[in-house]
Specification:
The protein is α/β, with parallel strands linked by helices. It is 48% helix and 11% strand. The protein has 39 helices and 24 strands. A seven-stranded mixed β-sheet has the order 11-12-10-13-16-9-17, with helices on both faces. A six-stranded parallel β-sheet has the order 3-2-6-7-1-8, with helices on both faces. α10 (216-251) packs antiparallel against α15. The relative contact order is 0.08.
């Protein structure tokens, strides 16, 4: 292996095989069993890390097992192509390679921490922790992943301090006014949050560093200057209009002398209404574009008034220059307007950064988004030996996977360590090495720092960061897809690379060449199989139906379009299944999560088994929706809307068919009536910790199902929330609203369900059948965040300024717009490439029919598909469906049983805390009130220690408004009857330590909760008391025996157990 190897690995080319083989080759090439400790492999995600570790361990396990010990039907090492290749390349016999594999595997398993395959963030964290003292960080700092929370807190703190800084207050107020003028909400918090995200995105790192030395007064001066520049433009336009009308009035020229009067009317409109009457649409009109070339008048004027015609000809260039000076002024005004809009936000960035620093120090946290910048600023200038000494390991061999997703800062941070390794030798005279694997065509993470250009510069050898030869190798065979799929993709992307309306190969980065050189070879073993379908949905015809009606409701088109889409997708699913494919073989891909949500919902309604990130979201589970409403109603019990939502969600959970009868029963009563009927007590709920209270609600309402991983995850969310944030219940609801779109369970593997996911999430995956939907995206948006280079001497020392809409900027700086639009085009085509290279067998592409204008200018992906079909001679405007290859049946695979994640319930029998009184006679009220009072009585018993405490405890409940003065007497009577009963009165004295509602863990891992345990410390004896209502039941005795067995595991002796039945009379049973 050369010192520096770069693998250009297209989709399906076996890059994981290459990586693992290279990794094993290095650690098996020597007899040193610790050689693996000098290797550092870096990949993009934790999932990829685990997969690579598993692959290495499994290969070593395979290599280590002698063929004679392999069971029949299992794979042998001698049959493994990697094993055979490594033996040949390392000049080892099979026995020698087997022996080395055994020793290395044993050593790795006993020293797993030294087996370093990690993410770049994982390595960075290790680096930063090693340098915590040098960076003046608390060595026990917590890595903070929720950067959004940090930004919101910083904005909140900034607002609190706004009044202390008049200049900051002025800037914020001005920005609010600007938003009001744009007919937007005056509240700028959302906009500030969006701009604050720049602080956590390293694409903006260099530009934001330029702002560090600026003061708020610098931003204010820049803003005022830009406003003056705009005023200057208004003057230019005003002068141009005056000159035009001075000329026309002097010569007696009117609108009738110009072709259709358009040119004259353009000036007249500005003269009457001012600069803001300029309509940018005019600049594309034929008369405006051709104003300097073709006559300004119609043919009739030449005969009717040749003198005027000659006068207009003589002044044509001058008039055309006036028009274009107005156009230029318009676009400069738009440019300044966009700059001014963002100056306030940039000014606030500095203040936000100061707030974030303060929060980090106070909370002892370090956002993961800052790892790369911290290393870049501080650590990377240190000598490499010093860095290695700090982290405790000297790495000699580096592997970097998915290099196209590695950001500029990440690569620059790694360079000194890699350079030191590849330019030096160890004691065995072995030189260090670097292996890079990537595919610029799969670079789809530019928004978080990944740059295709960085990898292109390396494998094209435009950049040579090392004083060594860079060996570049193309992995050009596709081992994933069928012959027809590979051939189609080769043909399609070659077309994309060469079409004159797409990539412009005259710039610095010739993106077209990326796809021109990307043709994949087809393995000889690949049979003539594979099928591709391209289908266009004719959106226009569905719109005409609605447009013909005057009262068409907005959004109906969307609904009808969605129906056509889902019907078409359903057609593809049925077709694939007819040919032998299972649900789990099918994956539906879309660019945006919104479409994935819609498709998942619609297919689920039609009865299909679906698994998607959205289907895995907690917020979409009826039981969790009910719990969220329950939490809310526990805080706002008089909220009628919340009560109705709670009842509806309960009906959905329990699949109540008689919905009207159910709602009528409770909708006009207080929510306590519903709770009482269900045996649930809000007061009791609040006695628990938040986590235990939710567990209580799950048990009482019977929400847990045998396979319910969702509730288990919801409880995990609550536990983590309380552990990390330590907030109250009301704060949790805010937290839930912020996070509910991300909180989900992990996708189970092997379930026979159709996968639905975004293209970004599908990266690295493969499926027999792929349905690629909504292939309609624009190739260039013109709405991206862009830093514009400006002359610092003209812009108060600023070198870069921010705009978030560069449409029209080509009129000012054509080069920067060309480069940006080419970057956006590459990202769009790359996303398409990732989607179209996921399938093994079948690829269905679903798009909207492109607009007629796509003939002259390709602006959408659907336009690219149309242009390709035209080039292939297949396009027919009357056809909507095109196929390549042939659909062939496959052999059906038998399904195994699904594995489920069980939800652990704490009790297998009815909970003891549900108390329902037989009648309401005690209170002389209705049954519902009696139930509520019964639950209240149980709560009081849960807090009662001795009989002497009864008056004080009831007084406490009275002061809290939990009971009335009239209720004190009957409650006192009832409690005294219990606590003075001959069989149990001893256990309501100070002689015993009392554990009310304490949880105990039994040997099976389940929690048990006796109502009362009275423990006599001197004798280590305990008595159990449990409160019940109604009649005795055998299960109660079983329950008490379980309680006793569990307590005795602690070393206590349970001498007696009592059941106390609280009805009209108190009855005590001794067991």
């Amino acid at each position: 292996m050369g010192n520096i190897q770069i693998y250009n690995a297209s989709a399906g080319s076996g890059k994981t095989f290459t990586l693992v083989k290279s990794f094993l080759k290095l650690i098996l090439a020597t007899k040193n069993v610790e050689a693996y400790k000098t290797l550092l492999a870096i990949t993009f995600t934790n999932k990829a890390v685990n997969e690579m570790k598993e692959r290495v361990i499994n290969q070593l396990l395979l290599f280590s097992t002698p063929d004679a010990l392999v069971e029949e039907g299992e794979k042998k090492a001698s049959d493994d192509i990697m094993f055979v290749q490594l033996a040949q390349e390392l000049l080892l016999s099979h026995e020698e390679l087997q022996e080395r594999s055994q020793k290395v595997l044993k050593h790795i398993l006993h020293n797993y921490a030294g087996f370093t395959i990690t993410t770049i963030d994982g390595f960075n964290q290790r680096l930063i922790r090693s340098f915590a003292f040098d960076l003046k960080l608390n060595p026990n700092f917590e890595v903070f992943l929720e950067t959004d929370d940090l930004l919101r807190l910083a904005i909140e703190n900034l607002f609190k301090k706004a009044n202390e800084n008049q200049l900051l207050t002025k800037l914020l107020l001005e920005f609010s006014r600007d938003k009001i003028e744009e007919d937007k909400d005056w509240d700028i918090e959302t906009e500030l949050f969006d701009i604050a995200k720049l602080l956590t995105n390293e694409n903006h790192y260099t530009y934001i560093k330029e702002l560090e030395e600026k003061q708020l007064s610098d931003f204010q001066s820049l803003k005022e200057d830009l406003k003056q520049q705009r005023k200057g433009l208004y003057t230019v336009v005003e002068d141009a209009v005056k000159h035009f009308f001075t000329f026309t009035q002097k010569e007696g020229i009117t609108a009738d002398h110009f072709t259709r009067g358009s040119l004259y009317n353009f000036f007249d409109k500005i003269s009457k209404n001012g600069f803001f009457a300029i309509d940018k649409g005019v600049f594309d009109r034929v008369w405006f574009v051709e104003s300097g070339e073709k006559p300004l008048y119609s043919n009739g004027l030449l005969k009717k008034d040749p003198a005027i015609a000659q006068l207009l000809d003589e002044n044509q260039q001058w008039i055309s220059d006036l028009l274009h000076s107005i156009e230029k002024s318009y676009w400069w005004d738009q440019f300044y307007k966009r700059l001014i809009k963002n100056v306030t936000l940039l000014a606030v960035l500095k203040s936000l950064q100061e707030e974030i620093i303060a929060i980090k120090e106070e909370e002892n946290i370090l956002p993961i988004s800052e790892f790369n910048s911290i290393i870049h600023q501080t650590i990377i200038d240190e000598p490499s030996p010093f860095i290695y000494e700090k982290i405790g390991t000297r790495y000699q061999h580096y592997f970097i996977d998915e290099f196209q997703d590695t950001s500029t800062l990440q690569w620059e941070n790694m360079l000194p360590l890699v350079a030191d390794a590849v330019h030096s030798e160890n004691l065995s005279k072995q030189q260090g090495s670097l292996l890079i694997v990537g595919d610029a065509k799969q670079s789809i993470y530019r928004w978080r720092g990944g740059r295709a250009e960085q990898f292109m510069e390396l494998y094209n050898k435009e950049k040579k960061p090392f004083y060594l030869i860079q060996e570049v190798q193309n992995l050009d065979y596709n081992y994933r897809s069928r012959r027809e799929v590979i051939a189609f993709n080769n043909s399609f992307f070659h077309f994309v690379a060469t079409h004159p309306l797409l990539f412009n190969n005259s710039g610095k980065h010739r993106y077209g060449e990326l796809y021109l050189e990307a043709e994949q070879k087809i393995p000889d073993r690949e049979a003539e199989r594979g099928f591709i379908s391209i289908e266009f949905i004719d959106k226009k015809s569905t719109q005409e139906v609605n447009n013909s009606e005057e009262e068409a409701i907005e959004g109906e088109n969307v609904v009808e379009q969605t129906d056509i889409r889902i019907e078409t997708i359903e057609k593809y699913i049925k077709e694939a299944k007819i040919y032998g494919y299972l649900d789990k073989d099918i994956c539906i891909l879309s660019r945006r999560n919104k479409e994935c949500i819609e498709i998942a919902a619609q297919l689920s309604e039609k009865g299909y088994n679906v698994i998607s990130s959205e289907a895995l979201l907690l917020k979409n589970i009826p039981e969790i929706q009910f719990l969220i409403h329950l939490i809310s109603i526990s805080l706002y019990q008089t909220n009628e809307k919340e009560k109705i939502d709670l009842l509806f969600s309960y009906a959905k959970v329990k699949q109540i068919t008689e919905l009207h009868a159910f709602m009528s029963q409770y909708v006009h009563k207080p929510v306590e009536a519903f709770f009482s009927a269900m045996g649930f007590s809000l007061s009791y709920f609040h006695l628990y910790s938040f986590y235990e209270g939710i567990g209580y609600a799950i048990r009482v309402f019977g929400l847990a199902k045998p396979s319910d991983a969702y509730l288990a995850q919801f409880l995990n969310v609550i536990y983590e929330y309380k552990s990390v944030r330590n907030g109250n219940i009301a704060d949790f609801l805010t937290y839930w609203e912020e996070k509910k779109d991300k909180l989900a369970i992990s996708a189970p593997e092997g379930v026979n369900a159709i996968s639905i996911m975004t293209i970004h999430k599908s990266k690295g995956l493969e499926f027999p059948v792929v349905i690629y939907t909504d292939v309609n995206d624009s190739l260039r948006s013109g709405k991206d965040t862009l830093w514009i280079c400006v002359p610092k001497e003209q812009y108060h020392g600023f070198e870069h300024l921010l705009i978030d809409d560069y449409s029209g900027l080509e009129k000012i700086d054509a080069e920067i717009v060309l480069q940006q639009s080419q970057v956006e085009l590459l990202d769009a085509i790359n996303t398409m490439y990732v989607a179209m290279t996921r399938p093994k067998d079948l690829l269905y592409i679903l798009s909207q029919r492109p607009k007629e204008k796509e003939q002259e200018k390709i602006s959408t992906l659907s336009g690219v598909l149309q242009a390709y079909l035209q080039a292939e001679g297949r396009w027919n405007p009357s056809e909507s469906h095109y196929t390549f290859g042939q659909l062939l049946p496959i052999e059906r695979v038998a399904l195994g049983e699904n594995d489920y994640i069980p939800f652990k319930q704490r009790s297998v029998i009815s909970p003891s805390y549900t108390i329902v009184t037989r009648s309401g006679s005690m209170w002389n009220t209705s049954r519902e009130e009696a139930i509520a009072r019964g639950n209240l009585l149980h709560e009081i018993l849960g807090q009662l220690i001795t009989q002497e405490d009864i008056p004080e405890l009831l007084h406490h409940f009275f002061l809290e408004g939990r009971i009335t003065q009239e209720q004190i007497a009957p409650l006192t009577h009832q409690l005294e009857k219990i606590t003075t009963h001959p069989l149990i009165k001893e256990y309501y004295t100070k002689e015993y330590i009392v554990y009310n509602e304490r949880e105990w863990l039994d040997i099976s891992g389940e929690y048990l909760r006796p109502d009362r345990v009275a423990y006599h410390k001197p004798t280590q004896r305990a008595v159990i008391i449990d409160y019940k209502t109604g009649e005795d039941h055998p299960q109660y005795q079983t329950q008490l025996r379980r309680y006793a067995q569990t307590l005795e595991q602690t070393g206590w002796e349970v001498t007696q157990s009592f059941l106390v039945f609280i009805n009209e009379e108190i009855r005590v049973i001794s067991l």
